[in-house]
Specification:
The protein is an alpha/beta fold. The protein has nine helices and ten strands. A five-stranded parallel beta sheet has the order 5-4-3-10-9. Strands 6-7-8 form a three-stranded parallel beta sheet, covered by helices on one side. Helix 7 links the parallel strand 9 and strand 10. Helix 7 packs parallel to helix 9. The longest helix has 21 residues. The model has no long low-confidence stretch (mean pLDDT 91).
Length: 259
């Protein structure tokens, strides 16, 4: 089986999903189950995973015995806040060290602040965290984050929550070509065709939240995304035919035709 390897562990699903923006934890559970995802992200600042003993916990809907949790730093705008948030996550999740780092630049675009991201990544790697890092689609920045020791690099396809799809496939291709760690598209996927295109480019996986959670039917969209990721991966492995502009090529044999 074609597995996704991250930080020494293998996963059969290449779709990672977020747990925010759903109506309730029950809808979250149903969508995640339908997606087939094995890794789920959780915003420590926004989701109860034990901080409030009197409120429903995501841990009950999505038990850690079944899913790999990926605590993230959504809502952090400085390296200091991001590091503090993930220190809290490690405490709440009994020493869990696989995390998603994102440090945002401004609340309007949610574009990553790569300077603060690099700073936080250095600190977290030194503290023993296995860092999957959200970043811009700048190949130089992506390579630097890899060299710092991040276990996966996750460039945006377009802005968080925009649903605009892949706006710069060329930069993504450069990042993929030069990376020695998994590359996952994170942010901007809007529908199944976006997911398929990302996988056809050679991405190792996709992390998404809004595209599923804000669909009119999140459960059905989760199913569509699962299939799109699988189809895109298979197409990438199969190797597409070359594009031939203005060059006719019959799809059936021309020899032995009846005349």
């Amino acid at each position: 089986m074609d597995m996704l390897d991250i930080a020494g562990k293998s996963y059969s699903s290449r779709l990672l999903v977020g747990t925010g923006k759903y109506r309730d934890f029950e809808e979250t559970r149903l969508a995640v189950e339908e997606s087939g995802a094995q890794i789920v992200t959780v915003a420590i600042r926004r989701t109860n995973i034990g901080q409030d003993k009197n409120e429903p916990s995501l841990l009950d809907a999505l038990p850690p015995s079944k899913y790999t949790y990926l605590p993230n730093t959504a809502g952090c705008y400085s390296a200091k806040d991001a590091v503090r948030t993930l220190m809290l996550a490690r405490e709440l999740l009994d020493g869990h060290d696989l995390v998603k780092l994102e440090v945002l630049g401004d609340p309007a675009t949610l574009y990553p602040n790569v300077i603060e991201t690099i700073s936080a990544a250095k600190t977290l790697v030194d503290e023993g965290f296995k860092v999957m890092v959200y970043t811009s689609d700048d190949p130089i920045v992506a390579k630097e984050l890899e060299e710092i020791g991040c276990v996966a690099v996750m460039p945006l396809a377009s802005l968080i929550g925009s649903g605009m799809g892949i706006l710069n496939p060329w930069n993504l291709s450069i990042i993929i070509e030069n990376a020695k760690v998994p590359v996952l598209v994170d942010a901007g996927v809007g529908t199944a065709s976006d997911a398929a295109i990302a996988m056809e480019l050679g991405c190792d996986g996709i992390l998404m939240n809004t595209a599923i959670a804000q669909a009119k039917n999140p459960i059905l969209m989760a199913s569509a995304m699962k299939k799109a990721v699988m189809a895109g991966r298979e197409a990438y492995l199969a190797g597409r035919m070359p594009k031939k502009y203005y060059s006719a090529s019959p799809s059936s044999p021309t020899s032995g035709m009846i005349s």
